[in-house]
Structures are given as structure tokens and as C-alpha cells.
Amino acid sequence: MSRISLLVNGKTRVVDVDPETPLLYVLRDNLELNGPKFGCGLSQCGACTVIVEGRSVRSCSVPVSAMQNRSITTLEGLGSSTHPSYLQKAFIEEQAAQCGYCINGMIMTAKAFLDKNSNPSETEIKEALNNNLCRCGTHLRIVRAVKRAAREKVQTGKV
Amino acid sequence: METKSISRRQFVKGTAGLVVAFNLFGSHLLGQTIGQSGAGPDGSPQPTELDSWLKVGSDGIITVYTSKVDLGTGVLTSLSQVMAEELDVAFDRIHMITGDTVQTIDQSQTSGSRTMHKAGPQLRQAAAAGRQELLKLASAELDTPVNQLTVNDGVVSVVGKPSQNVTYWKLLGGRRFHVTITATGTGAALKVAEAVPAKNPKDYKIVGTSVARVDIPGKVTGEFTYSQDVRIPGMLHGRVIRPLHVLSEPTGVDETSIKDIPGVVKVVKEKRFVGVVSTTEWGAIQAAKTLKVTWSTPDAKLPANRDALYDYLDRTKSVKDQVVADNGNLESGFSQGHKTLEATYHWPFHMHGMIGPSCAVADVQGDKATIWAGSQGTHRTRKAVADLLGVPQRNVRVVYAEGSGCYGRLCADDVAEDAALMSRAVGKPVRVQWMRHEEHAWEPKGTGQLMTVRAAVDAQGNVTAWDFKDRYFPYTAAPDYPLLASMQIGLKSNGPGFPGNGYEYGTTAAGDLYAFGNQRVVCAVIPWIQNEQSPLRTCNLRAPGAVSRAFASESFIDEIAASLQMDPVQFRLKCPRNEKRTAELLLAATRSAGWVERPSPAPASSASKATGRGVAISDRDGAIVAAVAEVEVEKATGKVKVKRITIAHDCGLIANPDGVKNQIEGNVVQGVSRALLEEIQFDELGIKNVDWNSYHTIRFEDIPAVDIVLINRPELGFLGAGEASIIPVPAAIANAVFDAIGVRVRDIPMTPERVLSAMRSQPNTNAKS
Questions:
Q1: Touching check for A103 and chain B: CB below 8 Å?
Q2: Complex ipTM
Q3: Are residues B709 and B565 in contact, defined by beta-carbon separation less than 8 angstroms?
Q4: Among residues B172, B207, B225, which one ends one of the domains?
Q5: B656: pLDDT strictly greater than 60
Q6: What is the pLDDT of residues B46-80, one digit of tens each?
Q7: Pick among B220, B361, B668, B670 to test the A interface (most A CBs inside 10 A)
Q8: Domains recognised in chain A with CATH numbers
Q9: Of the four, B168, B175, B310, B358, which is 20 to 30 A from B162 by CA?
Q10: Are B565 and B603 found together in one domain?
């Protein structure tokens, strides 16, 4: 067991865990953050995506020891249902979820993408999300939501 | 898209049921009657009590109780609309408690596109009965006859005298109705308060509008509690070590192999069941992966490959020939024919492929248990767990917590049993989530099907004979059959077991849309190779059996049209039909898609990519759908790209248009994925699809445009939108592929290799004649 300090959603959190534990289980089980989801544990589906210092990361496949003192953002760190971020708001406005289990990964991947590409084409959005799997078939709405968010971001300068 | 703004209450509603369940009725209070009315012998409320269905809170919130659950389709929002409409209250006042065996009546599991169709009227009538009682109370309170009263958002006032009023919550707030209503039948067939008049759909203000879904704000912010997110105090983590065949014996379990893994609490061994419990999830995962278990070699084998599977389906005597249609005289029909066509279609085993593996939390204390699971039917799960633990059903409470998307029977019940066995073994609550390879391996699959169609047409192009035969496996993971853990500890089926247990793979979509004079449709149930669960165990997968039968029957209709050099739409319109609505539907779809009348295939071109269009229609319990597919086929590689699918959709009365569109888009995308990409690969030892790299599903790059035409028919009531629109999609694509390249692909999935192979092997006509 090791004490590891993480900066999660702007707050310092210290956990005492097996250092090999993938970040996902620490976020979910130790910090009780439900945004990141276990989907495959293989970096294939994207349900567990979080943002580490601006980059989207599959939290199921990185050991927590590699996250020492690093800044991690989860879905909860973007906003809440009372104060959703522009991206979460776009997903609500487009009703872009069915079961919603993949949506954490869609939003977190889109967030890292939009932070680097503020005015993407539809093709670029699809490319950015292509390694995130959705089984309910919500893809069309997800693309619409990301487009809406991108428009909103350009118009209002929101982050 | 326009949706109503989201109020705070709306998103709270999405999860509030769970929060309440944890706070007030946690596992330690299990067995106490906490239902809103007198409980029956099994601990569930009685449908004849109005209080079993709804409660008027003093805070102006109306709580509705239903065993129907939201599987990610948004149906909870639609049912809330039905309740708000019938009670004449604002949508935000409705709060739903769903799928809790001590709080909700068993209205049967949530499946088969039947929630709005069957439970919609049950809840509507309960609401109508509730409104009637509230008006009686108001009548006494206001000293005015009921027919002089009007209701607006729960405020009952005297017509023409709005200041004389009283609210529902003042009349009844926090108290029970203590009223008996009529309720006959059970489950989906339950008829509730039938004699109470309900609103005329013409007067609907809430039903029929695109109210925003109550669950989405919580889902996009991490606030929603999925079954995977349930945590209770003192909870441990379990994982299962499952052999390839459930009846394999663990001949050796070497516990020293995991002595260095921190957190292991116990290796749970019970007959053939082996699991590990740990204080941490990662510890349980590591221990399950590392634990050395030697298993006996099972006798049973799977078919060696795909060809062996279809050969087995073809040559094995059926245990039951379900004769769906046997009209006229087939022999004479064939003799009247000018020509006879015949074709065979292959449909593979498919996976549901939910993104989040099954998960449950169980708390077994003595002879009582509480289970949280994403079950389609918590009452069904209760019975399974009660049988497993050997306790009465009333000692088990199952509380629904939504899982990852459900497109048919998944493993929420199996994992609930795993958790229950391990919780009993350690005396503490245990959470179990399956790993990805377990979910892929053990989720019940959609069955492979072998379908043969023969038809004759006369010189005028009339179909004089239609002979359709489908051969498939029944559900081997049937509802009454022991689940995996039950089997491993040696429980046997109480019912007839399988095959022939009444859980067949449906009989529809085999040409029954058409009223051919001489018509025979048989769905033959083929016994599974061995009577034990294997990774090819089968159960319902979205529109069970109908997607595949529609692929065969609607492809074949096109084959006939092509042989007559007739436009596929015109040919369908010419065929006698059982359902008059289909003509209007077909025209709506083809008009929207810009369909140009001509026979298939399209004139050949020298372009590297051939384009084509195809049509198909379907009926699911009265919900009818027409699909037009537009595809592009790369001639050099055989790769099919679906560019656009146009759907015309008539599911009777539409509760929530945007909700229906969301379902249609999902059905289409899943249909494209299943038609082009998906197939379970196996050999004698097991299946080869253990992750997403070995079982491909559609990705963003291949998503087609989806155009939707909704046809609302309030007079028909709700007919269900959860599954109807997947049914015609593969057939429409196959017909479009034929239109593009002039060859017929009769095997799903239509991979580039199969398309190329068809292009090489088929002459320029599509069917044997």
C-alpha cells in the first residue's frame, strides 16, 4: 500500500492504496466519483475517460502511482445538474443519451478535443470520438451535442 | 430540437427513488412491510388497492409505483407524462418508484417493446381512478357536484368560480386513499380499473409533447446512480471465476496462489461455484485473475464453426414446429405459379454488447436478502435469488438500479446471484461486477437462424404461394431456468426446462404483413446441442427473431419484385396486405427519401462505388415501420457504407415524439451494426469474441444519417417504440446492396468478404428461378 496524493477536480486528495491500482478504481471506490465508468478495463471503449492535465486518459489502464500530484478532472469536475458546463448543457439540450453509460467518455473526450479545436467540422468530431463506443446508438445526438457545444463555446467564449 | 426546460425537480426525480431506498429502507429494514398498501404473501403490493399505485404527498408530489423500469429508453419520462396527464397535474409533480419488489406491483418485466403498450394503460387507469377519488373528496369539500368541478395542476375548483378551490394535497396529502379498484389478470395482462373513464386523447396536453427526459441531467454530470454505482456501508467486492461450461467441476483450487494479493477476504467455494471476495475492487480483480483453479473437462462441445452450426440447424429434428400461418393450399399455389423462387438466409449469433458489464450488490443477512440490480424484472430476480438461497420470496427484496443499456436479457440476474452467494458466504454486503471477457462470454446471445423461403408467382406477378421456414434455438437462458450460479450449486429447473418451454424466438416478420392466399409459415424450434449453459446460451435480443426473419422475408419480397422487374415499393403495394396502414407508411418513407420508381438493380455504372436504395417494412405488435436505406458499395473491396436510413414510424399514440426519435435513431444504428459488422465466432471450446477488438460494433465513422417521419395515431393507443424500428433495417440494407451491385447477399453480417464473394459467385440475376 502507498499513500498517493492526487489533485482531483481542483482538490487535493490523498489515498492509501496498492500503487498498481488503476486510477479508475481509486476515483470510483476511494473517492466515490461515479462519472468514470468501468466498461472494459482494456482501453477499448472509453467509458472510463478522465482528463489529466488537458489530455483525455483511459483511467482503467493507468496505475494510480503514475498520477502522483497530477491534476485530474472527472465528469463531476465539469459541472453539476444545477450548474452544468456548456458541454453538459449541450448534451441535455440535444437529449444526447439513452442509457448514458458511455456518456462520461463522450463528454470527457469531447472536452479535451474542444479545448484544442474550438471550431471543428463534423468529420473532425467523429474522428475525435471514433474510439469511444456507444451501444444504444446515440451517436447522432452526441455529434449534434458536441457541435452545439462548439458553437456555444465560440459565441460565448465559455470553457 | 425543442424540449422543455429542465427544472430541479426533474433531475432529482431520476435518482430520487434510489436515494430514498437507501436512506429509509436499507437492507437492515428488510422484511418489514414498508409498502404503501397491504402487501400480499410474496411481500409485494396488491393491484386492487389504489394506494399500491399512487400516493399524494402533502408537498404536492405525487408518487407513482410501477415494476416497469427505465432501461435507458426514457420510458420513465413517458410514463410520468401519462400519469401527469390523467391526473391533471404538472409533469414535475410526478415522482416514480420503479422495480422495487416491496413497493411495486408485478406488472411483468420490462421487455418486448411492451412498457407503453401494456403498462401505459394500467398506469393511466390507476391515475384515472385516483383522479376520480380526488374529485369525490373535492366535491364533498366544496359542496359542489363533481360535474361542476375542474382541475388544473392539482387544484380542483368550481367551474366559473375559480376562488372556490381545494388542492389534491390538501384533500389527501400524506394519507392513503383506502379505496379498492378492479384489477384482473396478472403481469402484462393485468387490467386495472377498466370501468373508470379516462381522458379523450384529443384533450391531451402533456402526452404527445417532447418533455425532456428526467434522467439525462444526472447522467451527463455523474450524479445519476447506476447499479454499478450503488455503495452501501461495509460493502466488499467480489469477482467470479467461471469455467467455460458451468457444469465443469473445480477439481483443484490453490488458495496459496493468491496469498500475496492484499485485501482478500475469502475464496468462496460452493459445489461448482468459485469466487473471491476482497476489501477492494482491484484486489478482487487481481485475485480472480491469479487464483489457480483446475476445472474438469466438460463433455459438451459447441459446433466446430459457422458451417457446422447451420448444418446442425438444418439436419436436426425440431422439437416443436410452430405453425404461424397455414392458409389456402400451398401445393395448388405452387402449381398455379408461373415461376418458383427459393432462397436460404443465414443469421449469426449476436451479442447484446452492453457497454457496462453487469453489476449487483447483495446484502444477505441470515435468511433475508436485499439485492440492488439492473434487472429487467426485479420480481423475477427475487424468485431466482430466493430459490438460490432457499428462502421464501418475501424474505428477498430486489431494488432496481439502472444498468448499462439493455437490449434484451442480460446478466443482471446472474450477477445478482453471484453477489448473493458471496454475500452469504462472508456475511457482509458484496458488490460484484463482471469483467468485460465474462460479459462477452456469458451474456445470453441472440440465436443463429437458418431461414428458407419458397414462393411462386403467376404470369400477372401475383404471389400464388409463400412457404417460409425458420429454424432456431429457443431461449436456453429462459426466465424459469436456473441462472449460472444456481446451476453451479446444483439447482434444477422447477419448470419444463428447455427446449419446448414456451420461450421461443418469436414467430413474426415472416411475411405475415402480406395476406397471400396460399401461405405457410413455420418456426421450428431446434433443441440445443447440450442441456447445459454454454457461452452460446440464448435469450431475447431486441425484437427477438423478428429482425432476422424480416431480413429473410423482406429480402425475398425484393427478390420476387426483381424477378418481375417491378419497383420494390410498387410490388409491396400490389401485394395483398393484412394491415391497411402499411401503404400510407410506405409512401411516407419513400416520399421522404425521394424514392424514384424503377425496378432493382439500378443500371450498372463504371464508377468505383455503386450506389443503391432498398426498402423494407415490418410490424411489431401493431407498431409498423418502413425503412429506406441508401448505400454505397465499393466494388473493389465489397465494403458497404450506409449513407442514410429513412424511417416512417407508426406506433399508434405517441407519448413523447423526441423520445420516440431517440429510440428510432438507436434502433437504426444498432440495426446497421448488426447487419454489417457483428457475428459471434466460436469453435468447439468456446466463443472467440472476448473484447471489443474481437466483436466489432459500429463506430462514429460509419453512422448513417437518419431521417424520421412520425405518424401519430391517437385512436390506436400506445403500441410501443422500443424495438419496432430495428426490424426492417438489415433487410432494407440488403435490398439496397442488391440495388447497387445486382447481387444478393443472404448472409449476415454483410462483410466486405461476403459481398465480394457474392459478386464473384452470383450471375447477374438475384434468385434461382
A1: yes
A2: 0.98
A3: no
A4: B225
A5: yes
A6: 999 999 999 999 999 999 999 999 999 999 999 99
A7: B220
A8: 2-77 (3.10.20.30), 79-156 (1.10.150.120)
A9: B175
A10: yes
